[in-house]
Model the fold of this input.
Amino acid sequence: YQLVESGGGLVQPGGSLTLSCATSGFPFTLVYMNWVRQAPGKGPEWVSGIAPTGDSRYADSVQGRFTISRDTATNTLYLQMDDLKPEDTALYHCAIGVWYEIPGNEFWGQGTQVTVSS
Done:
């Protein structure tokens, strides 16, 4: 299977970014897809997940600012990030799971860097 993230970059506080995760090699609509982030020197943090049903959940730290979605025609996962804050700075990974969770890192993509700074 393959997970390839893109869309990261440098953005000012209050700005927006949309991350994408192109996937292949597994049944995209039958698994939970999660976004996990890791800031330098910190452990991984679960950000958001979407269930096979399409239901979604968010960490309290991003609730109301981030929106997870998926395109089942192209097997692509998205994370729309609005009102970004410096504490959102991290390497963002999409990850295959069986729940809203941080799976083992063998199920993560390589990540895309998001830096929020003025």
About this structure: DSSP finds no helices and ten strands in the chain.
